[in-house]
Specification:
The chain is mainly α. The protein has six helices and no strands. The radius of gyration is 18 Å and the shape is flat.
C-alpha cells in the first residue's frame, strides 16, 4: 500500500530528524555547561519550558486531528493525509519534546532539591498523567494508521480536554507552590 510506505518513510525520516534535534540539544547543553556553568540552571529551566510548550502543542493538536480523522471517510485522501500528519506530529514533535521535558524536569528537581516539596509531587503526578495521555494518543495514531479507530469525533473532543486539565494542575503547582 502506498500509504503504509509513505508513513514508513515518514517514520524513518522523522526518527532521524528527532535524533539530530536531540543530539543538537545535548550539544548545546554541553557547551553551556562548559562556558557558562553559573547560568546552567536557568538555561535548563528555559529549555524545559520550551520542551513543555512543544509537547503541549502536540498534545492539544493531535486529538483535534483525530476529531477530523474520525469524521473522514476511511481510505479518502483526507484520511490518508491525516495519517501522515498524525504520525509526524507524534514522532517529530511530541515524542522528543516529552523526553526532553522529562529529562530536564528531573534534573531541575534534583538540582533544586524539590523532592521533599509537596507541590513537586502534585506536579509529578500531573506529568505522569500527561505521559499516560501521550501514550493513549500514540495508540490512537497507531489505530488510525491501521483504520481501526473506534472513537467518535465527540469522544476525541472530550479527550482533547485532558491535557489542558493536567497542564493546569502542573503549572499551578509550580507557580503557586500551595504546599
Amino acid at each position: 500500500m502506498a500509504n503504509t510506505q509513505t508513513v514508513g518513510k515518514a517514520g524513518k525520516s522523522a526518527a532521524m530528524r528527532a535524533g539530530i534535534a536531540v543530539g543538537a540539544f545535548v550539544a548545546v547543553i554541553a557547551v553551556i555547561s562548559f562556558f557558562a556553568p553559573d547560568d546552567l540552571y536557568n538555561w535548563i529551566k528555559a529549555f524545559h519550558v520550551i520542551a513543555i510548550i512543544a509537547w503541549m502543542a502536540g498534545m492539544l493538536y493531535l486529538p483535534r486531528l483525530f476529531v477530523y480523522h474520525a469524521g473522514a471517510k476511511m481510505g479518502s485522501e483526507t484520511a490518508e493525509t491525516l495519517k501522515v500528519m498524525e504520525h509526524r506530529l507524534l514522532k517529530i514533535i511530541m515524542n522528543p519534546a516529552m523526553i526532553i521535558a522529562w529529562i530536564l524536569g528531573m534534573w531541575l528537581a534534583w538540582a533544586g532539591g524539590f523532592f521533599d516539596d509537596v507541590w513537586f509531587w502534585i506536579k509529578f503526578v500531573a506529568v505522569v498523567g500527561m505521559t499516560a495521555a501521550h501514550a493513549s494518543l500514540a495508540k490512537g495514531v497507531r489505530l488510525f494508521a491501521e483504520d481501526r479507530n473506534e472513537r467518535s469525533p465527540r469522544t476525541w473532543r472530550m479527550i482533547n480536554e485532558i491535557p489542558t486539565v493536567l497542564m493546569t494542575i502542573a503549572v499551578l503547582s509550580v507557580i503557586l507552590k500551595p504546599f
